[in-house]
Amino acid sequence: xxxxxxxxxxxxxxxxxxxxEPSIQANGWIVEFRHRRGGFVPLTDxxxxxxxxxxxxxxxxxxxxxGFHQVRIADTF
Length: 77
Known about the structure:
Protein name: Thymidylate kinase
Number of helices: 2
GO molecular function: kinase activity
Keywords: Kinase, Transferase
Oligomer: single chain
């Protein structure tokens, strides 16, 4: 979902947690949001492709733009 769509879900309490985790496809980090009914919703561009960030700080900023004040970093190491 795009940033704007996620902001709407946040404002209606449909998403309850922001999670940053390593990308499987690229060398970087993705931002996902846990839906209140279960499952995760990824941050995507307008074409539906998952957004990947080169550093945790930039990924965290995107979660903050959605509305969250804290994020969980899921690390596979």
